[in-house]
Specification:
GO terms for molecular function: ATP binding; ATP hydrolysis activity; magnesium ion binding; phosphatidylcholine flippase activity. This protein is an alpha+beta fold. The protein is built from 41 helices and 35 strands. Helix 14 crosses helix 15. The protein starts with 10 loop residues before the first helix and ends with a helix.
């Protein structure tokens, strides 16, 4: 248990607590609307809103013992053994002392209790650490330091730069222009680029005025607590006026304040009601498929046990009737106990004797094996990310073997597949490509981390983090090439980036999206430094010379235009329009003189697209003053038109954005995490299907799909589902399905069955269909919403499962979880979800296995995950090595454990036919007690912890080794039945061969050797040796530890046997150690050792023969690879191949943002810098515009007119 882990809560425990809460009237009424008043704790307390303290612990000092014992005894096996202890207390029933069951049960409960206590202590520490953070709270007109746990709904708190937001708060005012604040939402959505929030105008007036803030008594009515991170609806009522509130005015708990000196906020949601905690909600209790199968097996074994005991009870009745009277001379009957009651007692006596079929040590060993394999994940240095000092972590120790059975992987994009870092890689200027390196023979050179970088020391304002390698580009720019300088001048002017300069020369750009920042940074390093801006001007340092351009107009980007333009006037009075956008859009607007240059640039664009880069085309146009004046007049008329405003504005933009002169193209890399394409390729070879569920727009996600090799040019077809109606979505899905499989039936093939405990659970399984060719499916969020409805979900799943790749774009956190649940419900396959932000939490919790990408402190996905890794590439080692080994080890352990215990129990069953069904046991009491706890405990643990069929290198070399786990081939019903048959055969040999050998045996001195104690020692020694040798046959991988465990256990067995049977022990404890001298007398006979040899031979020779036969006739993939291992030795490390140059006509057209641009905010008159050296972004035009609408931009008026006053009714 790590400090930031949220432990799973068992469903039964949750039901119990809920019942107790209802019983005492403590259940909280569902909240329909939140109503609060600022600075009025008495008013807000009347609503009994949650305080800001969080609690993830389960126990306290008083409740630990009863609640923990209650949890442990909800397990069927623990309750069963408690029942056995109770009936063992009755001497009329039990032939075994009570401690043979009580000692193991006490050990199990103690180990589990200590583990739970340690986990809960860590949770208490984590809760205390978070709750004791401090924040400034406005109380009685003064700012006071308060712990987070004391913050209440309605309080006004002050936040400072780099401070975490303590609760969900309504932003009131800030230190920045227009009351803006910058927040980093890494913990929520995994994105590192800053988000902008803005306070309402009516609250922003208060600024840092403590008296005004203390008098602030506004009321807020808003939605109840929920987990929607991207939506908020509410109203602010102040002085009788109603002002609307949206998500852009709310700071969420978990965000960090950046580049903002201070801000004030009104607490709306606190503690468990915050959106962060709502997304973290209660975890479902996850069990592996092996656990579920084990529950069914335990029930079956109980049934078998009852049947065996019933047979023996009937045998007891028959024996008492026919032969019991003969033994009444020395076994007098108990008065009042007839044959019926005697048989009933015999039944329960054999329930105790044969309880070895469900040994309690099984559960101890399973937990220890899982814990050990979890440590191996934690300790794996090949999954350690040294850059961030982040190891892999198994945060849940009970799901390891499930990692070896994954069939479907659901992945987020941003921060999971990508680093959310954009780099300027290549460009084409005036027909010449830059960014590649060539050697003296003209061959392209692979660029690595050791490749020489450009030296930008000549530019004092250059960004030291910027990396570029092509010297020819820098030489071209510094030589004064007009096209190259115009290229970078465009990048320095045509954008909505905001500069920040705290100290002279230390520039920091705040970009709406990382790729815009990358382009401006590239211009900065090549000598065209964007320095500052006002609503009317842009200041650029051009090759060391300060140039101030008048900003005439911004023609902003939106999803329809797919381009952005600025019109600027140089100090010389020259008017120029600079435009950048998608190649298809810009090419339509180029001057005919650019046709030849366009052909060359297109060839470069194809190369860049083949490398998976995001491309933009750059162009410009010189304008005439008179034309611009006339155009602005027409634009003003169109912008105030009541009818057809958008169409008229669109035409106005078209008029000026034509006959452009092509400058070139840029290629920006949306940097993937290292090794992502190779990892996806390896997982695909292991027959795992990877679905990408992302909130990004289709174009961005599609581009990443090509970069990751999930989408390929050679695919038969990539289907795109983007309909806006349910019928349209249905038709598009059906078209895709019929195209992939023309002969498929119209109705899906669903197999209905029963499963689970007592077979009460109904299951529906959608059958796979054969498809020729490779296909991919891309579906948008609005289409997915229709497809997830009950009428269409099977059609969606059926079509998606035919595809090799599925990408879902613009999906909400809830939709991510719904997709995972849909696959779980109808495919009956093991699923894994991997992500890095709070928007991935619901998906992570819905999947069988949740993996969080760590490496940045406080990542919310990690808090809710079962495993955490620092990089996506480590997923292949987590699954193909650790997951496969864990599954293989667990299945081997279970097969062997059931084999040895069934063999033990069947031998006791055969002996019942020779002891008058009296409940007597054939072996020594202490042998029965120590058999699982001591004699065979460590060897079987060694098998479960260290065994491996092939090394990690071979496991990665042959991902196909993973497929048996997906089919659950190593431990299913057939395997269990074969294990039982093997145990039955071994028990026959182990009982009847020693029995026959000692039937008429005599010792060397002529005395009879066939007494009960000698036979018992002989039988138990044969049993122990056979199961030990069988363990050796099961082991593929031998280490010193395995050898020590096996030979040490054999030595311990013989040492304990001789010590317990010696005279001294008998004299001290004559009633507990009755086998005086039995070991010495039995094992000193040569015939005994010959019997042991024959017994082992008869038990093990058929096993070797069958395995040899199967390996020759029907070898498995494991057999083939292990044969190759012995033949070839360890594989060589995979060479680093240079990625071949790929050409593509498919390009990402534009990826600057997911919403409209910030052009109107840049040109807002409300933008007034407050500092001499620091320019701050003015991102909002007037009082309360939305920050990021999920729709195309409504065209604005470029001419700047005075703001009209807006009354309260306008905001409603």
């Amino acid at each position: 248990m790590r400090c930031d882990e949220y432990e799973e809560i068992e469903l039964k425990m949750g039901s119990f607590v809920s019942y107790i809460g209802k019983l005492f009237g403590g259940e909280k009424r569902k909240e329909l609307e939140r109503h609060l008043r600022a600075n009025d704790r008495h008013f807000n307390l009347s609503y009994r809103y949650a305080k800001n303290a969080i609690k993830t612990s389960k126990y306290n000092i008083l409740t630990f013992l009863p609640l923990n014992l209650f949890e442990q005894f909800t397990r069927l096996a623990n309750a069963y053994f408690l029942f056995l202890i109770i009936i063992q207390l009755f001497p009329e029933i039990s032939a075994l002392p009570w401690y043979t069951t009580a000692v193991p049960l006490a050990l199990v409960l103690s180990v589990s209790g200590v583990k739970d206590a340690i986990d809960d202590i860590n949770r208490h520490k984590c809760d205390k650490q978070v709750n004791n953070r401090t924040v400034d709270v406005l109380i009685n007109g003064q700012l006071k330091k308060e712990k987070w746990l004391n913050v209440q709904v309605g309080d006004i708190i002050k936040l400072e730069n780099n401070q975490f937001v303590a609760a969900d708060v309504l932003l009131l005012s800030s230190s920045e222009p227009l009351n803006l604040v910058y927040v980093e939402t890494t913990e929520l959505d995994g994105e590192t680029n800053l988000k902008v929030k803005q306070a309402t105008t009516v609250t922003g007036k208060m600024g840092f005025n403590i008296e005004a803030l203390a008098r602030f008594n506004a009321e807020v009515r808003c939605e109840p607590p929920n987990n929607r991170l991207d939506k908020f609806k509410g109203t602010l009522i102040l002085d009788g006026e109603v002002h609307s509130l949206d998500n852009d005015k709310v700071l969420l708990r978990g965000c960090a304040l950046r580049n903002t000196d201070w801000c004030f906020g009104l607490v709306i949601f606190a503690g468990p009601d915050t959106k962060l905690m709502q997304n973290s909600g209660r975890s479902t209790f996850k069990r592996t498929s092996v656990d579920h199968f084990m529950n069914i097996l335990v029930l079956c074994i109980f049934g078998l046990l009852m049947a065996m005991c019933l047979i023996l009870a009937i045998g007891h009745a028959i024996w008492e009737t026919k032969a019991g009277s003969v033994f009444q001379v020395f076994l007098p009957p108990i008065p009042g106990v007839g044959i019926g009651l005697s048989s009933f007692l015999s039944f329960w006596s054999y329930v105790i004797v044969l309880n070895m079929v469900v040994p309690i040590s099984l559960y101890v060993s399973v937990e220890m094996i899982r814990l050990g394999n979890s440590f191996f994940i934690d300790w794996d240095r090949k999954m350690y990310y040294s850059k961030n000092d982040t190891p892999a972590q198994a945060r849940t120790t009970s799901l390891n073997e499930e990692l070896g059975q994954i069939k479907y992987i659901f992945s987020d994009k941003t921060g999971t597949l990508t680093q959310n870092i954009m780099t300027f890689n290549k460009c084409s200027i005036n027909g010449k490509a830059y960014g590649e390196l060539y050697d003296f023979t003209g061959q392209r050179v692979e660029i690595t981390e050791t490749t020489e970088r450009l030296d930008f020391s000549w530019n004092q304002l250059a960004d030291p983090k910027f990396i570029f390698h092509d010297h020819s580009l820098m030489e071209t720019v510094r030589e004064g090439n007009p096209e190259a300088q115009a290229f970078f001048r465009l990048l320095a002017l045509c954008h909505t980036v905001m500069p920040e300069e705290k100290t002279e020369g230390e520039l920091n750009y705040q970009a709406q999206s990382p790729d815009e920042g990358a382009l401006v940074t590239a211009a900065r390093n090549f000598g065209f430094v964007f320095r500052s801006r006002t609503p009317e001007s842009i200041t650029v340092m051009e090759m060391g010379r300060k140039v101030v351009y008048d900003l005439v107009a911004i023609l902003d980007f939106n999803n329809v235009r797919k381009r952005m333009s600025v019109i600027v006037r140089s100090p010389e009075g020259k008017l120029t329009l600079y435009c950048k956008g998608a190649d298809t859009i810009i090419y339509e607007r180029l001057h005919p003189s650019c046709d030849k240059l366009m052909e060359v640039t297109t060839r470069h664009l194809n190369e860049y697209a083949g490398d998976g880069l995001r491309t933009l085309v750059l162009a410009y146009k010189e304008l005439d003053e008179s034309y611009l004046k006339e155009w602005r007049q027409r634009h003003h008329e169109a912008s105030i038109a009541l009818d057809g405003r958008e169409e008229r504005l669109d035409q106005i933009y078209e008029d000026i954005e034509k006959d452009l002169i092509l400058l070139g193209a840029t290629a920006v890399e949306d940097k993937l995490q290292d090794g992502v394409p190779q990892t996806i390729e390896q997982l695909a070879k292991a027959d795992m299907k990877i679905w990408v569920l992302t909130g990004d727009k289709q174009e961005t996600a599609e581009n990443i799909g090509y970069s990751c090799n999930m989408l390929r040019e050679e695919m038969s077809e990539v289907f795109i589902v983007a309909a806006n109606t349910a019928q349209g979505v249905k038709e598009e899905l059906q078209y895709a399905r019929r195209k992939m499989s023309p002969d498929s039936a119209e109705e899906p093939s669903v197999v209905r069955a029963r499963a689970g405990m007592f077979w009460l659970q109904k299951t529906e399984t959608l059958q796979d269909e054969n498809v020729d060719g490779d296909y991919a499916l891309i579906i948008n969020g609005h289409s997915l919403a229709f497809a997830l409805e009950k009428e269409l979900q099977l059609e969606l799943l059926r079509t998606a499962c035919m595809c090799q790749t599925v990408i879902c774009c613009r999906v909400t956190p809830l939709q991510k979880a719904q997709v995972v649940q849909l696959v779980k419900k109808y495919k009956q396959a093991i699923t894994l979800a991997i992500g890095d932000g709070a928007n991935d939490v619901s998906m992570i919790k819905a999947a069988h296995i949740g993996v969080g990408i760590s490496g940045q402190e406080g990542m919310q996905a990690v808090l809710s995950s079962d495993f955490s890794i620092a990089q996506f590439r480590y997923l292949q080692r987590l699954l193909l090595v650790h997951g496969r080994w864990s599954y293989l080890r667990m299945c081997k352990f279970l097969r062997y454990f059931f084999y040895k215990n069934f063999t033990f129990a069947f031998a006791l069953f055969w002996y019942a036919f020779f002891c008058g069904f009296s409940g007597q046991i054939v072996y020594d009491d202490w042998f029965i007690t120590l058999f699982n706890l001591v004699y065979t405990a460590l060897p079987v643990l060694g098998l479960g912890l260290f065994d491996q069929d092939v090394s990690d290198r071979w496991s990665l070399q042959y991902p196909q080794l993973f497929s048996p786990g997906q089919l659950n081939a190593y431990f299913d019903k057939k395997v269990f039945l074969s294990c039982m048959m093997h145990s039955w055969y071994s028990s026959v040999i182990l009982f009847f061969v020693p029995w026959a050998a000692m039937q008429d045996a005599v010792r060397e001195d002529g005395r009879d050797a066939a007494d009960f104690q000698t036979f018992a020692i002989m039988g138990q020694t044969c049993l122990f040796l056979v199961v030990s040798i069988q363990l050796c046959l099961e082991s593929y991988y031998w280490t010193f530890i395995n050898q020590f465990f096996i030979w040490g256990s054999i030595a311990v067995y013989f040492a304990v046997s001789f010590i317990m049977n010696c005279n001294g022990i008998f004299i001290m404890f004559n009633s507990m150690f009755p086998f005086i001298g039995a070991a010495r007398n039995s094992l000193s006979q040569p015939s005994a050792w010959l019997t042991m040899f024959l017994t082992c031979l008869l038990c093990l020779l058929p096993v070797v023969a069958v395995r040899f036969f199967l390996m020759q006739i029907r070898p498995t993939i494991n057999d083939k690879v292990r044969h190759k291992v012995r033949k070839e030795g360890p594989p060589a490390p995979a060479p680093l191949h240079q990625r071949p140059r790929r050409f593509s006509t498919r390009r990402s057209s534009y990826a600057f943002s997911h919403s409209r641009g910030y052009g109107e905010l840049v040109t807002s008159r409300g933008f007034l810098p407050k500092r001499s050296l620091k320019s701050r972004p003015a991102l909002f035009l007037n009082t309360d515009p939305p920050l990021a609408e999920k729709q195309p931009q409504l065209y604005r008026t470029i001419s700047e007119e005075p703001e009209e006053p807006q009354g309260p009714q306008a905001r409603m």
